[in-house]
Amino acid sequence: MKKYSIIIPTLNEESGISDFLKSLQSLRSQCEIIIADGGSTDKTKKLALPYVDVFLTAKKGRAIQMNDGAKQASSATLIFLHADTFLPKLALQSIEEGMNKGYQWGRFNMQLIGQHSFLKVISFMMNWRSKISGIATGDQAIFIQKSLFDELGGYPEIALMEDIALSKQLKKHSAPYCIKQAVKSSARRWESFGLARMVLLMWYLRLRYFLGTSPDRLVELYRRGRFV
């Protein structure tokens, strides 16, 4: 049995899936790679199959897909990874270090990759907020003991903010192990909507979520990049 299961939710990722999965191949002696696809209509499956251990089709929805992927996992530690986020070189060693210290879950720092120099500032603020709050986001590559994940019932199957909802539950069990090494995540969505607008939108959506707005409503705003 391998130590880690990397679970990747996908939907129409043909443009970058090959390069992304190739970056994980050196980890396969210790990791099984599971793609939980939300019904892609492009070549995602064809391109991914040579590089994964499991490719499953799930009902569309990131939380649902990740939960279905976790059900297929055979390892003691789960790593949830977005298909545009790249792990650092010593990722597995860093996770193991945290688990050996008694942590049950954690996340990486995150670096947004794109053309705008202000992305470094945004990345710093996101990592700082996460460290202070103990709340992790999906693009920080959340990892967790499978036994705890199963005990909690997995990700809450909501349309948006599933990572925040899970983090709030996990904090009741232990603080997150925060790895300073950064995963590198694409800033394509940030740049397409505009950095200032996206920063304000994400803070606005989180505020609305904490005030009780339905995740179904929030995901509509997120997809359109709108406040109303």
Provide the CATH topology. Spore Coat Polysaccharide Biosynthesis Protein SpsA, Chain A
Oligomer: single chain
Poorly predicted residue ranges: none
Based on secondary structure, the structural category is alpha/beta
Query: How many helical elements?
Result: 10
End-to-end span in angstroms?
49 Å
The name of the CATH architecture is Alpha-Beta Complex
The CATH superfamily title: Spore Coat Polysaccharide Biosynthesis Protein SpsA, Chain A
Helix proportion: 40-55%
Number of strands: 8
Radius of gyration: 17 Å
Lateral strand order in the biggest sheet: 3-2-1-4-7-6-8-5
Number of domains: 1
Which short descriptors sum up this protein?
228 residues, alpha/beta, Spore Coat Polysaccharide Biosynthesis Protein SpsA, Chain A, eight-stranded mixed sheet, 10 helices, globular
Q: What would you say this structure looks like, in words?
A:
The protein has 228 residues and is α/β, with parallel strands linked by helices. It has one domain: Spore Coat Polysaccharide Biosynthesis Protein SpsA, Chain A. Helices cover 42% and strands 20% of the residues. It has 10 helices and 8 strands. It has helices spanning 17-22, 44-48, 62-72, 91-100, 119-133, 146-152, 162-170, 188-193, 195-210, 215-224; strands at 4-10, 31-37, 54-57, 77-80, 85-86, 105-113, 143-145, 177-186. The chain has an 8-stranded mixed sheet with strand order 3-2-1-4-7-6-8-5. α9 (195-210) packs antiparallel against α10 (215-224). The chain is globular and about 45 Å long. The mean pLDDT is 92.
